[in-house]
């Protein structure tokens, strides 16, 4: 039987249709699916290609409103139990497109969500980008970044080391999902919950409600966002 079912959002910041970034995102998502399968569980993958949303991301950055296709992507992100996020490396950091997507994302959407971060680059000298740029970004967004990050330079595709690192990161993610979704099961069916044991017949699915954009604007509010001025404090 299936122990649990989780939804995985895969964010790819590749700037070409057949990029190494897309390949790494695919490798990581396949590794997560396989790791969950070995535990008798299931992962449903939903992909978000930032290249296809580039114009919408710019519009949202300038106007503060997400066009329909981008809003749909954020709904997928808000419903996800876990995430894989991969970007190309430009000038020792993530791309502007990748950063702009997260700049336009409502606060709190990633709060408590386990994340695998990955990056691609033209040489191994950029390999620290996952720890110097990606990990701080998602830590600020209150996501649970997995210990193993995966960086892929051109030479990495020739050996088995890249697959081994992807499997290690995937195992960490599925172990986190097991802690979140394992144990006594809550099966969500038409808004009514039925609690069953691991020996029952029904698999567990996520019991958390979908975090829509409107619902998350006040979630996980940062107390430093609206710091009062000295003049306002003196009036009190």
From TrEMBL:
Chain positions covered by the region annotation Disordered: 192-214
Transmembrane stretches, start-end: none
Gene3D superfamilies from the UniProt entry: 3.40.50.360
Source species, domain of life: Bacteria
Keywords from the UniProt entry: Flavoprotein, FMN, Oxidoreductase
Pfam families referenced in this protein's UniProt entry, alphabetically: FMN_red
PANTHER family named among the record's database cross-references: FMN REDUCTASE (NADPH) (PTHR43408)
InterPro entries for this protein: CE1759_FMN_reduct, Flavoprotein-like_sf, FMN_Rdtase-like_dom, NAD(P)H-dep_FMN_reductase
Descriptive protein name: NADPH-dependent FMN reductase-like domain-containing protein
NADPH-dependent FMN reductase-like domain sequence ranges: 7-157
């Amino acid at each position: 039987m299936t122990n649990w079912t989780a939804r995985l959002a895969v964010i790819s910041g590749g700037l070409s249709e057949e990029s190494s970034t897309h390949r790494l995102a695919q490798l990581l998502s396949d590794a997560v699916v396989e790791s969950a399968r070995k535990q008798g569980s299931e992962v449903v993958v939903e992909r978000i290609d930032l290249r296809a949303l580039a114009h919408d991301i710019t519009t949202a950055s300038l106007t503060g409103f997400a066009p329909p296709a981008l809003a749909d992507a954020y709904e997928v992100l808000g419903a996800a139990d876990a995430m894989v996020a991969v970007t190309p490396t430009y000038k020792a950091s993530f791309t502007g497109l990748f950063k702009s997507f997260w700049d336009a994302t409502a606060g709190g959407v990633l709060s408590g969500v386990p994340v695998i971060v990955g990056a691609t680059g033209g040489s191994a000298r950029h390999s620290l980008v996952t720890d110097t740029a990606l990990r701080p970004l998602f830590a600020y967004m209150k996501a649970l970044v997995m210990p193993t990050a995966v960086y892929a330079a051109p030479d990495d595709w020739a050996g088995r080391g890249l697959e081994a690192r992807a499997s290690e990161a995937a195992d960490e993610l599925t172990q986190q999902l097991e802690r979140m979704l394992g144990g006594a099961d809550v099966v969500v069916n038409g808004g009514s919950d039925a609690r069953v044991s691991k020996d029952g017949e029904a698999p567990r699915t996520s019991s958390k409600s979908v975090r829509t954009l409107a619902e998350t604007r006040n979630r996980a509010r940062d107390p430093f966002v609206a710091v009062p001025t000295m003049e306002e404090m003196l009036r009190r």
